[in-house]
UniProtKB/TrEMBL annotation:
Family matches, as CDD domains: TGS_YchF_OLA1, YchF
Protein name as annotated: Ribosome-binding ATPase YchF
Biological role: ATPase that binds to both the 70S ribosome and the 50S ribosomal subunit in a nucleotide-independent manner.
Keywords, in A-Z order: ATP-binding, Magnesium, Metal-binding, Nucleotide-binding
High-level lineage: Bacteria, Pseudomonadati, Pseudomonadota, Alphaproteobacteria, Hyphomicrobiales
HAMAP family found in the cross-reference section: YchF_OLA1_ATPase
Family: Belongs to the TRAFAC class OBG-HflX-like GTPase superfamily. OBG GTPase family. YchF/OLA1 subfamily.
Amino acid sequence: GFQCGIVGLPNVGKSTLFNALTKTAAAQAANFPFCTIEPNTGDVAVPDPRLEKIAGIAKSASIVPTRLTFVDIAGLVRGASKGEGLGNQFLANIREVDAIAHVLRCFEDEDITHVDGKIDPIADAETVETELMVADLESLERRITPLRKKATGGDKDAKAVLPVMEAALELLQNGRPVRHLELSSPEERRILKELNLLTSKPILYVCNVDEGSAANGNEFSARVAEKAAAEGAACVVISAAIEAEIAQLAEEEQKDYLAEMGLEEPGLDRMIRAGYELLGLITYFTCGPKEARAWTVREGTKAPQAAGVIHTDFEKGFIRAQTIGFDDYVTLGGETAAKEAGKARDEGKEYVVKDGDVMLFKFNR
Ligand code: GDP
């Protein structure tokens, strides 16, 4: 599955958030109990009101949401890239994830020490980013000399990889993360991905604000939002303290509590969805009397590969996919009506799946 790593300096609220994420009712939704893969890895349900709508129309007996994995990556301190503290392990853990949720402390609390003595989320973001950039810089410098030799010697692969590596290196030397690299071809983007650099991963800034600012953010989170907008990064405002509270409550009590706080939904729901979008993921649905289920694919995935997420046999024997757009499915009132209205399309091998498609695969066994 897809993984989103939670990083940040000590005492910013990472563990509080992670614990809330993995304890919350949403995480345990439907008939998939929350499961811990490793102590610091939590598999959470992706909240999606569309799934309930579909299940209602199809009269499905059960609902199975799709899931996203969060990893609590503790141990980042200044000097991590130099192998101080748990530095190396920390960086190795970041290498494994597809995207980064960067938690920034946007709350004041005299009882909780800030590692640098004052609340400054922008400076904190830079501290963390610097560690990641230094690690990438060193990794590239180590790899580029032998690559240059190979390229000069006529090696085809090396010749393709080298320009991308040179461009990434130059960007880092100018103090900028690799995710800002502008690449023109899908081939170059594939090469960059394979270099597996820490600063090439997409970023979601998570502003952890005080309880009173959960609904509208505060001065600190406003600065982070501005930074995120300038960088083209994603940003959510959340209060870890509130989320921890919500995670303890029964569903009914949650609603009252959220209303009291001026919130429409738990901040974690927004965070999960933002992580999902950040990863470039979309959802398609399958449904029947037994279950309505959401499935995750990357944007741009074609029908056979999407079918393969359910079972490899579906991909191997793919014939076609009966596809109904979500809006048609809901407005018309289900599969039969959509068929009668001519809105159930037969899509073939080249069809690119759209977010919200309700699909039924025909395949050779
Ligand atoms: P981590 O080191 O980043 O994992 O941070 P923790 O989640 O362990 O939080 C550090 C301390 O800050 C704990 O005492 C938390 O209870 C507290 N904390 C976390 N989030 C908030 C918050 O939103 N408001 C306040 N006042 N305290 C918080």
